[in-house]
Sequence to fold (595 residues):
Amino acid sequence: MPNIEIMRHSAAHVLAAAVLELWPNAKLGVGPVVENGFYYDIDPGVTLTPNDLARLEKRMNNIVARNELFRREDMPIADAISFFRERKQDLKVELLTDLLTKGTTSVREEEAQELDAKKPDMASIYWTGKFVDLCRGPHVATAKEIGTFKLVKIAGAYWRGDANKRQLQRIYGVVFATKEELDAYLTMQAEAEKRDHRKLGAELDLFVFSPLVGAGLPMFTPRGTVLRRTLEDFVFNLQTKYGFERVWIPHITKLDLYKTSGHAEKFTDDIFYVSSKKSDDQFALKPMNCPHHAQIYASRPRSYRDLPIRYAENTTCYRDENTGQLAGLTRVRALTQDDAHIFCTMEQVEKEVGNIYKVIKTFYKIFKMPLTVRLSTHDPKEMDKYLGGEALWNDAVNTLKGVLKANKLEYTTGVGEAAFYGPKLDFMIKDAIGREWQLATAQLDFNQPKRFALEYTDADGTKKCPIMIHRAVLGSVERFLGIAIEHFAGAFPLWLSPTQVVIVPVAKEFAKASDKLAALLKEEGIRVEVYDARERVGYNIRRAISMKTPYMLVVGEKEKSLKSLTVRARGFQTEKKMTTAQFIKKLKDEIAKNK
Fold:
């Protein structure tokens, strides 16, 4: 059976073939492989609807039934331009022309699957029956080998991610080797749709977006802010015993900082650039924090006795993401990083990374999210992507392997998945419905300390360069919250819930007793809300249920003395009677147990 990635890429060609059979004048963009499937950007000349997906899927099945052959043909790039111009595929012509005149720098990641950037003077095309597409391959031998597929949605996308270019229609499909795998995926997606954090975020009053503020720039309501602050404080408290100290850095910096660190070169398209009317300096909104922390370290002489030095903070970074790639909280332009950096000696690396692992392991165990580990390394065949030489990288990778061995951790290896400045341990988690996410990380950096000329005085009086370790537990706070909302389906555990207890007065005459009860609970550190006594009690009960509040207290004649409470727990229809003291103890015990 062919590789699943090859099957998915081949399915994209079958989709494009089906498009041209239904709309012969359609213009084809690119059709890369993505997670679980593929997409293809097209301009069919009409506005597609969900009904068209069914038509396209049927036509794809016809092509598969014909078992069309996939056949490769190579030609000089100039001939390929003429070839696709004759077929009036102007988008393909643009790609090839840019490659011919501008070289490989003109090729974006999703376009790279169409073009072989390593052979800029040649182009390869693939025939599938009468259909032909620009592609570097490889592909399956025949259409019947593409597996089981389904077209899932239509979205808009600017050609080449440029808002100044024409808007295309992006058709997404998923492909799996077997029908059973496809059915399992579709079931998971249906559950994910019910848990969609964008929908739940609005229903639970957690965060908002505003067109006046801008796409990808979320704002958090009081409830949502409680949620994120509780998370941030929890992470910091977990790591306090390991010697981390809070620091603070500004949100804007001279671009020179990132030129020195190497980020300006590697991430030039992702940086928001800022100009000043009162200075000739070029500024940027910070896309990451590590260079700033390096400057705090560099601000005074350091001795080996000072190390390790551990800086931590939660601070927002800004990245110029393409509008079409933004997705609720999981892909934003303003991301708050749960960030920390350790400056240490080589001998201290193993212990420091081991302590990072302990924090990460504790955190995700509480969330009931199973962990696996990936050692993300450089790709020796593409060293131009990274800072530093191969010998330096091999030393860094071997250091992390030593950490994994010392902690008896099984792991997979992701060649080419390293950061541009060093290898890392990426911790992959699974959520409640089986989706895998990469969130926590520990990264070695042998490069930035050298680029910033960081140093410490060793025991023998010589100057040495420290090792820098990057650490994240949540990763992006926004992204983690989006995942957590879906993981819990909005029903957060008691310790994390924005409102832990709702008090529902049966009538207006019980409002004072309700307020008094709320004050008692607040004194004990419980987050509590009293619903308006002027509303009907049934309405308030339904509201508390819809807000997924862990506990509801109904206050009427029997409860107004506050000696005995009527307690209703989330997910239960029955109510329990207990004293106020018993209820408070129950809450505190549950919070302590879950944390």
Summary: The chain has three domains: 4-192, 202-487, 501-594. The longest strand covers residues 148-158. The first helix runs from residue 4 to 22. The two ends are 46 Å apart (CA to CA).
